[in-house]
Structure formats: structure tokens, C-alpha cells
Amino acid sequence: MAPDKTKLFPNENIRTVCYIQNLPPRSNVDIGDYTYYSDNTNPPEQFYDRIQHHYDFIGDRLVIGNFCAIAEGVTFIMNGANHRMEGMTTYPFNIFGGGWERVTPTLEQLPYKGDTVLGNDVWLGQNVTIMPGITIGDGAIVASNSTVVKDIEPYTIVGGNPAKTVKKRFDEETIALLLELKWWDQDEEWLDMHLERLVSTYDLQILRELLNSK
């Protein structure tokens, strides 16, 4: 039997891990099934504190797919952190008042990178920072303490500051088949039936059989 994806703490004995989809909803955040946040320092239900400079009036969204693993200290920097850049200085005079608010920028004058999107089965290590407007492909892994400043292709391992490609997890044929399989979209019965195969040492023949079982 699969764990209850509607519970905040699917395992009551491990209350450092929560399914963040079951936190109070936010209009500009979309979290997929079984995606969890783990935090051994703070209550994991404080996940929203990890999304910084995220304001409704900016209009950007944080979208996270199914079965993602998000470790302690991960931070999402959203578009609200951006400063006007075309002038001689980027200093935000307007926020301090005293008459300086006359140079308050319009939204059109601020850099805007769009939505931040994590695919499915993405693993973010501890203290990873994701900059605004980044897309991280299905099956990607980001090493601890990395800063992600550009998009990451599916099934790619990256690390560093700025994060750079370490290697692909699989060859291109395998990646194409995995993206076709989309195991994360299958129902609970299918997942339970094939669970051992999904976590076992990779085998191309098994992958083809799983595709035929959909």
C-alpha cells in the first residue's frame, strides 16, 4: 500500500520530512504529488520560508513536479529580488522613503526572468540556491551548496557555484525512454507493482518492459 499523499507527515515517526503539497495552498506556488521537504533544523512545514522575494504583484510562479526530494536549506530566489539595472547604480533608493520613492521603478523596468520550474524526480541537495526563472529538467540532481544560475537539462547532475554539469546520469537513448515512460505520472497500483524495478540497478531491457506495461 502506498503512503497517504494527502498527509503532511506521511510517516509520523519521521516528522522532519513532509509532503509540501499539503501545506496551506498559495496562489503562486504549485507542488506535485509526493514531493517532500526535509529539514532537521527547523520544522519542515516552514518550507514557504525558503521561497524568498516572492510577491503576488510580480506575477511569477514556483512550479515543482511530482516525487521531488528537497533537502534542508534549499532557497528559491524569486523575481522580486531583482533591482533596476540600466542606470549607473542598482541601489534601490525608493524603498527608504524620504522623498526617494520618486524613483520607484515600474514592473516593466525591473528584470524579469519568468517562472521557476522544477520537473519531476528532481533531487536538490542541502543549501542549494535556485535563482529566478530557472527550469530544472526531470530526473536532475543538484549537489549540495550549489547555486543554479541557468537551466538544467533532464537527468543531468550539476554542482558548484555557479552550478556546472558534472555528468549525465544516463546515455541519450535511456534519457529519451525515461522521458517517454514518465513513471511519476503513473497511478499508485502501477508504481506499487513495479517499485523494485524502479529502484534497482538500471537495465535498458527493464526500461523497455516498463514502457510496454503502461
TrEMBL record:
Pfam families from the UniProt entry: Hexapep
| Gene3D superfamilies listed in its UniProt record | Hexapeptide repeat proteins
PROSITE patterns, sorted: HEXAPEP_TRANSFERASES
One GO MF term, please? acyltransferase activity
Please provide the record's keywords in A-Z order: Acyltransferase, Repeat, Transferase
Q: Taxonomically, which superkingdom?
A: Bacteria
| EC id | 2.3.1.-
Q: Which SUPFAM superfamilies match?
A: Trimeric LpxA-like enzymes
Q: Provide the protein name.
A: Virginiamycin A acetyltransferase
Q: What is the lineage of its organism?
A: Bacteria, Bacillati, Bacillota, Bacilli, Bacillales
